[in-house]
Amino acid sequence: MNQAISGGRRQAALGFIFVTAVMDVLSLGVMIPVLPELVKRFNGGDTADAAVWNVLFATTWGVMQFICAPVLGLLSDRFGRRPVILTSIFGLGVDFLFMALAPNLWWLFIGRILNGMTAASFSTAGAYVADVTTPENRAKGFGLMGAAFGVGFTFGPALGGFLWQFDHRLPFMVCAALALCNWLYGYFVLPESLPPERRIKAFDWKRANPIGSLNLLRSKPDLLGLAGVGFLFQLAHNVLPSVFVLYMGFRFQWSPQVIGLTLMASGIAGILLQAFLVGRIVKAVGERGALLIGLLCGFVGFLIYGLAPTSWVYLCGLPIFAFSGLIQPGLQGLMTRRVSAQEQGQLQGANSAMLGITSIIGPTLYLAPFAWAVRHDATLHMPGLPVLIAAVLMLAGAGLAFRFAHPISGEARPA
Length: 415
Prior knowledge:
Oligomer: single chain
Function: Resistance to tetracycline by an active tetracycline efflux. This is an energy-dependent process that decreases the accumulation of the antibiotic in whole cells. This protein functions as a metal-tetracycline/H(+) antiporter.
CATH topology: Growth Hormone, Chain: A
Number of domains: 1
Strand content: under 5%
Mean pLDDT: 81
CATH class: Mainly Alpha
Protein name: MFS transporter
GO molecular function: transmembrane transporter activity
Family: Belongs to the major facilitator superfamily. TCR/Tet family.
Membrane topology: Multi-pass membrane protein
Distance between the termini: 25 Å
CATH architecture: Up-down Bundle
Number of helices: 17
Order of helices and strands: HHHHHHHHHHHHHHHHH
CATH superfamily: MFS general substrate transporter like domains
Structural class: mainly alpha
Largest sheet: none
Helix content: over 70%
């Protein structure tokens, strides 16, 4: 598996994959402050109608992830990671240009469809990491991917908001330029990570469709249970983009600037943990231990967020919640050990398909209870209800992990 790339080329390849992952998530982060305002402009400033369109956009994006991620994952198992990653990056750049030039809402809607399709390259990037890292260092490699996720969601909204004040199309143009430069760089420097002898012999649509891709999860011991842990974690994590800005503004009367700084501080804490502590913690407690610690810290962090009576108590939850960054490295380390080199792309595609499902149902799961709690605030006074729902999901994930996250031969174990 590691003969295709060695030494410094492996490090350079991991660096490129990190940048690629950042670009994927950055595209999501930029949309958070920009897309709703752009929709309002196209819709004559009607906030209620804009909200309906934004729900449609969010749902469509999740559906495209659900459909396309397994296809891209299996394509990478058949033809290699490099062509799929480069095609997705190029498509992402073209998609941003499309949205920058969109003359109306329907063009923008088509752009969101393309964005959901091309952003699914995150799954192929995960398979690339599995290819070029040894099983003992795989959790550390996925920690790098987690850091990329943190960078994108920490600085994406800030970038979008900053560029928006100059021109409402400028955020899309800048992201298009970054994506196309990334594609050009990758075209010349990115090596293939999956040699031909380790690829599947034929592309099978039965395995590539979202439902068929889940057959892989059922075919290996404990893999479906671990996928369930990932689903609960992703669904819980969906509370952050769904209601946190509204929640913090309502409960603590924070200004947008304070909310932005708080989210940035939370993101930076997660990035530091992913970059510097994941490898050491996994070495000390193993992948199973890291997964359980991450889920329990996520539960406690959400509990503090949801029940905090003051802003200072809320801020005490930030360093605790940061350790939820251990979840993905530990989980991916356990899951990738249970499939062969030829199935890594299919596995990551199946995981991304489940992420698409959480993106479809997450906003409604959290926005509806939040709206109900706010309407009954005089008697209930529980605006943190959706955050508490996320905490319960984290705890359920911890229970599932305790049942299914069994170590197997070769897993990173406590030193």
